[in-house]
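Support reply, case 0932

Customer input (verbatim):
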Amino acid sequence: MDCWKGAVGRSWIYPTLITCANGFFSTMRPSESFLTPYLTGPDKNLTIEEVTNQILPVWTYSYLALLFPVFLVTDYVRYKPILLLQGISLIVTWLLLLFAHGVVAMQVVEFFYGMVTASEVAYYAYIYSVVSTQHYQRVTSYCRSITLVAATVAAVLGQLLVSLADISYFHLNTITLASVSLAFVCSFFLPMPQKSMFFHRKDVAETLPGPDKAVATLGSNSPSSCQEEKGSVPADRGPAPQQPADNAKPQNHVLRVLVQLSKDLRDCYSSRKLLYWSLWWALATAGFNQVLNYIQVLWDFRAPSHSSAVYNGAVEAIATFLGSATAMAVGYVKVNWDLSGELALGIFSAMDAGALFLMHFTDNIWACYAGYLVFKACYMLLITTAMFQIAVSLSMERYALMFGFNNFVALVIQTILTVVVVDSKGLGLDISTQFLIYGSYFTLIAGIFLIRSIYTIISTRCRHASVAGESTDP
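Our regenerated output:
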């Protein structure tokens, strides 16, 4: 038994397998593509206005309220407790969906689902705390791929059960409850990490093999930079925040870490390149999440589920596949992103705007489905590019920090959109008009980055022309 525990403690395979199992079962939710038909159907008897203007906005508000504290607590308690909390929240969410009734009960459902989404940071950060750096690339691939596979399987399974087996939405939610319960069980078997990214960080040199230790030790004594520099150390060997003395009080340690995080953010956003990529990330992610939150409502408006065949699961499966395919394609595209990156952001954001305008102006449900596929594929391509462009300039700790902060800013923007456009206490617009607003929003994003890209291209050409002219002078 001791030999087995020792092997588990040293191996990267065991925690990776359990983490992937947790990710698969927590994402394998076949009922999620049919949430709006379920709420507006005979099981819950809610109106489309109640779902749109009173229930769904609660998720945005709870997500915003919980994201930052959960982000800090996740690192402080070393991930596993938050994965357990996420499992409990998933179970409570689907128990309430199955057995509770009324607007207030469904608002409580959205609150717990906000806890689920705020806790997702623990899933993606946990694995880095229990495996060594040489396995980061492989385990990242496994953990991210398994969630895409689970989302696709869930959407296809849900569609097949609804269309071919005539399974009710209630029983579909029962299957989802069983799946998330398995995810909760899996999280118990995860090894407890001995380190975390910020509060319990160990010396980088301890995790690096052989001669790399010297590089890490030297790097820890030099000021960190968010700029890409020739000959800089790899991203996962970036400098760590200075560790407090052993006799420091815990509250002083927490304050020291928070101060270090604020300095890191200031340094990172002082890079113009990172600032513009992060600006697009925040703006586009806010719009993307808003569209995802209300797309089922639009589909139900165009083709009411009580009188039309519902293909939400099939569309989500295709959209997930296209999204993963475009994300993978980024790794094979050879582009000078410093010169053409902002142009790509502008062009594909304009395509997103066009897809949203199509969904607003058409009454054809198939055109709505097609517009959604284009919208999600374009976003996934660009967000993957943005993540890569930011990641290559940062240490892993600073990348995680910017990832969290960019998503927080996106959530603030999304909350403003929800309060003004969706909430019954704001404008409370109908779903079709909402998508007109979202199309205009992405048009604004496209305009910002197209103008910026034109300026960048012209400035670069003028600079090259000036250099060429100076080199020809006698």
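We compared this against your earlier run and they match. Two observations from our side: The mean pLDDT is 80. The chain has 17 helices and no strands. Please reopen the case if you see a mismatch on your end.
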